[in-house]
Amino acid sequence: xxxxxxxxxxxxxxxxxxxxxxxxxxxxxxxxxxxxxxxxxxxxxxxxxxxxxxxxxxxxxxxxxxxxxxxxxxxxxxxxxxxxxxxxxxxxxxxxxxxxxxxxxxxxxxxxxxxxxxxxxxxxxxxxxxxxxxxxxxxxxxxxxxxxxxxxxx
Length: 154
What we know:
mainly beta
């Protein structure tokens, strides 16, 4: 029986100094080769973890990753090709990293002053009853991504 090991990630961003009507967090290069999970977002809560409830004042929303569940092929079979030729019209490799976007306007405006630095704690969450029967390598260190951007609209 696998034990789910969360590897939360904390990033520091700066709120815009000028007024905005919408704010989104965009997550680039999110790996989806392991188990499915929910990426829960908490603003200015460095202690947030899988047990932190979603009704916590710092909870700002979440994104979902439908996981691939590991690789059953030979070595290299599940490695996305780094570069493709200019006129290669085949579909992307099924494990090409994805991007996700979460609107956080209300929480950002309520919790962070204009121009102020803030942290976003990204907590991967796999329901225990789903993580239990999975091999440990599919639920350990599940959150892997390239970068997080704050997008605001004026």
